[in-house]
Amino acid sequence: MYTTKRTLKDSLTSFLYPLKFIARYIRGGIMTNKTWGGRFKKSLDSGVNQFNASLSFDHVLFDQDINGSQVHVKQLAKQKILTEAECQGIYSALEEIRTEIKQGQYSFNERDEEDIHMFIEQLLIQKIGDLGKKLHTGRSRNDQVALDLRLYTRDKGCLINELLTRLIVCLDDLTSKHQQDLMPGYTHLQQAQPVALGAYFNAYQCMFSRDKSRLEDWFKRMNYSPLGAGALAGSTLPLDREWVAESLGFAGIIPNTLDAVSDRDFVIELCSVAAMIMMHLSRLCEDLILWSTQEFNFVTLDDAFATGSSLMPNKKNPDVPELIRGKSGRVYGHLMAILTVMKGLPLAYNKDMQEDKEGLFDTINTIIVCLQMITPFLQSLTFNTPLMRTKAQSGYLDATAILESLVMKGMPFRDAHHQVGAWIAEAIEKQCSLNELLKGG
C-alpha cells in the first residue's frame, strides 16, 4: 500500500482549495439567490435582472402561491417524497410568511428575487434552512404560475360574480319600482315611443344577467388544475395530480401537460367577459350622464356621488359614471394586449406570457371598483318621473300606436304609415298633438 506523510502545508492546501473554489464561483455569479444559477458562470446583468423581474406586480399572487405550495408539500409527504415532519416544517413556515406579508413586513421593490415564487422560497430557506430547498421538488415555475393564476382568477371571479348579483338585484328593484312610470324611449337619440322606466332598467338587468351567465360558464372551463405538469412534460416523481386538484377545489386536472403550462385561454376569456361588462356599464352610464344634464333633467345626482368645479360654482358633475365610461377603454386595451401576446407563441411556455399579468390584474381591479361604485350610485339617484311622463306624452310618440290602430281597421300598412305621417306634418304646422288634431278633425 502506497502512503505519504501529510505536512502542515498539505493540510492547509487541502483546506483552502475548496474555499478558493467557492470564492471563484461567487465572483463568477454562481452563488446567488438565483435558483437556476448552477450552470451559469456570470452574474446576471443588473439591467436584465430588472427587466426580467415581475415581483413588483406579481406579488399580489402571494396568497394563492402559498396555498398551492402548502398543498404541494402535503402531496409530497403523502407520496413519501418528504417526511411528515419535513412537510409540517415547510407548511408552518409558509403560514408564517403569509402572515408576515399581510402585516406588511416586506417591501416588494428593489429586491433581487425575480418573482413572487422565488421571493417566498428565499424567505422559506432563510427561515428553515436546507429544508426550504425541498419545497420546489416535483414542480416548475411554469406549472406553479399557471396554478397561481387560476386560483387568483377563480377568487376574483367569485367576487365579480357577487358584485354582478348585487347590481342585478338593484336593477330588479328599480324595474319593480318604476314599472308604471312612463318615459320617452329613444332610437338614434331621438324620441321614438313611450316606454316604462322600469322596462329601461329591466333591459340592463337582462344584459348583466347574460354577463353573469358568461362568467359562470367561464368558471366551469377554467376550474382545472395544471399542477404536476412541471415545465412541460410532467415529472418522474410519483405525484398525485388528482389529489392536489381535489384539495385545491378544482373539478379535475388538465390532462395534457403541454396545454397545462401554455394555456392562457382562461385569462383571455375573463378579460373578454370583463370587457362586455364594462361595455354594458358604459352604455348605462352614458344614459345617466345625459339624463343628468339640464337639457334632459330626468335625473338628479346625489351630492354624495357628484363633484363640483374649481372655477364654476354652479356645476354638479357626474364624475362617477364618467369615470366608469372612461375605464372601459383600458379593459378593452388589456384584452387586445393579451390576445396579441398569445397569438404567435410556440408550445409550451415562453417568457412573453409574463405579460399576461399586469393587464389581467388591472382588468380585475377595474371591473371590481366599477361594480362596487355603480350599485350605490344607482340607488342614490332621484328620477324626475313627472317630467319623464310629460315628455312621453308629447312629441308625437303615439304615432306608431295610431298607425297600428289603422292597420287593425283594415288599412294597408304603407297607406297607414303615409297617412299618419301627413297628420304629423299637419299637427306640427298647427302646433298641436296628434290626439288634438284628430279630435278636432
UniProtKB/TrEMBL annotation:
Main localization category: cytoplasm
Name one molecular function that GO assigns to this entry: argininosuccinate lyase activity
The compartments listed are:
Cytoplasm
- GO BP annotations, alphabetical order: L-arginine biosynthetic process via ornithine
Give its E.C. classification number: 4.3.2.1
UniProt entry tagged with the keyword Transcription regulation: no
Specify the superkingdom: Bacteria
Give the Argininosuccinate lyase C-terminal domain ranges: 396-437
PROSITE patterns per the UniProt record, alphabetical: FUMARATE_LYASES
Q: Please give the catalytic activity noted in the UniProt record.
A: 2-(N(omega)-L-arginino)succinate = fumarate + L-arginine
One Pfam family hit? Lyase_1
Q: Is Transit peptide given among the entry's keywords?
A: no
Provide the family line. Answer: In the N-terminal section; belongs to the lyase 1 family. Argininosuccinate lyase subfamily.
NCBIfam families with a match to the protein in the record: argH
Q: What protein name does the entry list?
A: Argininosuccinate lyase
Q: What is the lineage of its organism?
A: Bacteria, Pseudomonadati, Pseudomonadota, Gammaproteobacteria, Legionellales
Encoding gene, per UniProt annotation: argH
